[in-house]
Design a protein that fits this description.
Layout (H helix, E strand, L loop, with lengths): L2 E7 L6 H16 L5 H4 L3 E7 L14 E8 L5 H19 L8 E8 L4 E3 L2 E3 L1 H22 L1
Parallel strand pairs: 1-2, 3-4
Antiparallel strand pairs: 1-3, 5-6
């Protein structure tokens, strides 16, 4: 269940809510998690506007975007890393209406250590998340079966 932070100069994106949803859904696809509330409700993106003078490279240019994605350890193999970085970069450029922004978008993939990601006051392990997902899917199947 990733957390995504986007840092950009104020005014880069006109529809931040749509951008946040698009990024979250893309990462869920690359993680290959089931589309259940456990994951949909706990995969989120945060769009941070920064004053234009708060961003600069060594040459003095400040029209960059940084995307930081925090995932549980080991969920993105090399192919998934390559795919998610490419897709998130494309989503950023499209949301900004600037195709050249792909050249100025930095994506950092960070892994949370086992037990280093918490929600509702509990630090989750991979086993905790898998058990919660299985329980949610079983409850949904049971409810679906009862309603059929």
């Amino acid at each position: 269940m990733p957390m995504i932070d986007v840092y950009s100069p104020t005014g880069t994106f006109s529809d931040k809510n749509r951008l946040a949803q698009d990024l979250a859904r893309a990462v869920m696809r690359w993680e290959a998690v089931p589309e259940i509330p456990l994951f949909a409700d706990n995969t989120a993106a945060f769009i941070h506007d920064l004053p234009p003078d708060a961003i600069s490279n060594a040459a003095g240019r400040g029209d960059y975007v940084r995307v930081q994605v925090l995932t549980p350890a080991g969920v993105l193999d090399r192919d998934k890393q390559l795919g998610v970085v490419k897709e998130l970069t494309e989503i950023i450029a499209a949301a900004a209406g600037d195709p050249r922004l792909v050249e100025r978008t930095w994506v950092l993939l960070t892994e949370s250590p086992e037990g280093g990601w918490g929600v509702a006051g509990h630090a989750n392990t991979g086993a905790d998340l898998a058990a919660a997902a299985r329980a949610e899917m079983a409850a949904a199947a049971e409810q679906h079966g009862a309603g059929a």
